[in-house]
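Field reference: sequence -> structure
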Amino acid sequence: MTALTLSTSSAATVRADAVVVGVAKGAKGVVVAPGAEAVDKAFGGKLAAVLETLGASGAEGEVTKLPAADGLKAPVVVAVGLGEAPGKDDGYDNEALRRAAGSAARALTGTKKAGFALPVEDAEAAAAVSEGALLGAYTFTAYRSNGNGQNAKGGKKNDAKSAPLAEAAILGGKPRDKEFKAAAERAQALAAEINRARDLINMPPNDLHPKSFAAEAQAAAKEFGLKVEVLDEKALKKGGYGGLLGVGQGAEAPPRLVRIAHTHAKATKTLALVGKGITYDSGGISLKPAGHNETMKCDMSGAAAVFATVVAAAKLGLEVNVTGWLALAENMPSGSATRPGDVLTMYSGKTVEVLNTDAEGRLVLADALTRASEESPDAIVDVATLTGAMVLALGHRHFGIMANDDAFRTSVHEIAEEVGEQSWPMPMPGHLRKGMDSPVADLANMGERMGGGLVAGLFLKEFVGEGIPWAHLDIAGPAFHEGAPWGYTPKGGTGSAVRTLVRLAERTAAGDLG
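Structure field:
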């Protein structure tokens, strides 16, 4: 991953291959943001005018490169747009800084070192710039040839021109200040785990299946001192995990349930996280139509986010117990696959009539939610690429939040907004529950078509232990990005929800669960 340093050098004196400065859209044109004063001075106070001549407007994410003026050590200046300039007494929003740093880092692919001279008024701003740079520099090259017929996964180096930015120096970062140092360390740990989630999401399903995913968790547990338990198909059958077994029975790769936990000797609270881990979703017998299968390797994004969060909690030494449950299965059609009309007996003992085998995520989550509830955590949050209905409702950048407790839902939403993840609280209308009534089982895995994302949440609620605050994050929209990269968001897996879950764990450790 890109190295991160805090530097006391100015934008004029930093020894780097490029210096990044911020510009914004002002009332009368381009405005040079704080942090770029030395660069503006080197251009005779005309940096904004030069950029406007080159077509820059200061719009969010806009990147303009130009040769450095005399007096600057770095040979290249990279001006990145921050969007609308704030009011006289206001500072730049941390998410704007995060996105700008990400855009600049991506534009600096193939560069060894860049100095980021963006507005850094405090440690939080430094953290935002750090996170943006580290996340924006991300690339997934494990399966690319290096041009000589050798696959990079086999240990060969990729072309240096396509390598991510090697080092990001945050100017004005005060390396000896405790708050700034802690912010940089947290940013490094957080970005590393978000990128871990991205790597897992981007892996092809012929390499990432339930068994290999479980092995990844076991390896991380050994490295970071986590507790791990893996239930294979024999243990799942013995334990009566009908949801996981039912979804996975059509695949050659059998399902797994992984429990991975960070514990702290001083912890007084426990947060349980449950992740949907469908390593490939064909839809099963209810086969997905053409054009909907190609990205279904991403259907384990929830489990990736949970896994990454537990490791991040360990790296950060959070004084809270964080238990992750990875519900892993592959949903495939075959002669042994679950059929529409089959009835499954879940781990909870409830029976479910399967009306659509493509509504499989809620089945594996149901077993994991019941199991997680048995340990009586202080709260449970599940994360899943659960429904296309949520994408229709909120688009590709927001995830939906449902909960059995309004205060907890509000708290999770506020945390998501605080860390820069776009989300929206969704209702759980009781009248939609009737649509899941089944004539042969306790309930069906489908209900009314309209409001399908809410129906899925109501289904999951049936398997949460009594009295446990629970929230459901449907990340179907933002988990996998198919368009052009923007800000710090790459094409492919995004690591959605990791920042929200880590901040929730930090809040829980501080006694502010909500």
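Note: The first strand starts at residue 3 and ends at 7.
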